[in-house]
């Protein structure tokens, strides 16, 4: 018997688990926004689904990272392997509104945002109240909200929100380049994985073969 089994390489081109727009709405609609935790979770998921942030980027974000570049409101992003917030994502009006709605529950008004060095998302638990929301906590929040909306499958993880943003962008007609910039992919090859998946899912060859044999 061998002492160990060599594991295979992870296939980066394996199918990505994502949600349709209507399913995203189902997930968001079941969140009770009458509590601070509810407003936080709603704002967090809206940001992840809409802007395609990684969990580490959401965890690292500071309130003051909500800022203006030119005529556009953006969120500065500290990406993987970066020492500071050297990138950004545009913030649609609705995303900005839900973020500021959440921040007001922490006593942070819009005028306070530019100088506020607090984490954008913080814990509400008694043991760590006010501390940075960790990537593990963000993943747990996502999973809990998915399950409450009826999406109880191991394939759906916090990273599914990022896949969702990428695939919805392409399905809505945005170019591969636009989507690559939104997701901050270093290589367009990574974004092309989404294009390949969309094309394959839209391929009716197997259905046509089935009809030819059985209908």
UniProtKB/TrEMBL annotation:
Keyword Membrane included in the entry's annotation: no
Keyword flag Nucleus: no
Keywords: DNA recombination
Gene3D superfamilies: Intergrase catalytic core (1.10.443.10)
Cross-referenced InterPro entries: DNA_brk_join_enz (IPR011010), Integrase-like_cat_sf (IPR013762), Integrase_catalytic (IPR002104), Tyrosine_recombinase_XerCD (IPR050090)
Coiled coil: none
One Pfam family named in its UniProt record: Phage_integrase
PANTHER family xref list: PHAGE INTEGRASE-RELATED, TYROSINE RECOMBINASE XERC
UniProt name for this protein: Tyrosine-type recombinase/integrase
Source organism of the structure: Lactobacillus delbrueckii subsp. lactis
């Amino acid at each position: 018997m061998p002492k160990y089994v060599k594991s295979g390489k992870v296939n980066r081109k394996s199918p990505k688990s994502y949600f349709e727009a209507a399913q995203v709405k189902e997930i968001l609609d079941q969140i009770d926004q009458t509590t601070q935790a509810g407003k936080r979770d709603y704002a967090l998921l809206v940001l992840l689904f809409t802007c395609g942030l990684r969990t580490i980027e959401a965890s690292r974000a500071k309130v003051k990272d909500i800022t203006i570049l030119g005529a556009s409101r953006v969120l500065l992003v500290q990406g993987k392997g970066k020492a500071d917030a050297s990138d950004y994502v545009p913030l649609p009006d609705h995303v900005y509104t839900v973020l500021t709605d959440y921040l007001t529950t922490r006593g942070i008004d819009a005028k306070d945002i530019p100088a506020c060095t607090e984490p954008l998302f913080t814990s509400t638990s008694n043991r760590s109240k006010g501390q940075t929301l960790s990537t593990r906590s963000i993943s747990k929040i996502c999973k809990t909200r998915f399950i409450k909306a009826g999406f109880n499958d191991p394939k759906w993880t916090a990273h599914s929100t990022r896949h969702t943003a990428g695939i919805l962008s392409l399905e809505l007609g945005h170019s591969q380049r636009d989507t690559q910039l939104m997701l901050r992919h270093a290589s367009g090859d990574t974004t092309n994985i989404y294009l390949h998946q969309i094309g394959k899912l839209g391929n009716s060859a197997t259905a046509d073969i089935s009809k030819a044999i059985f209908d």
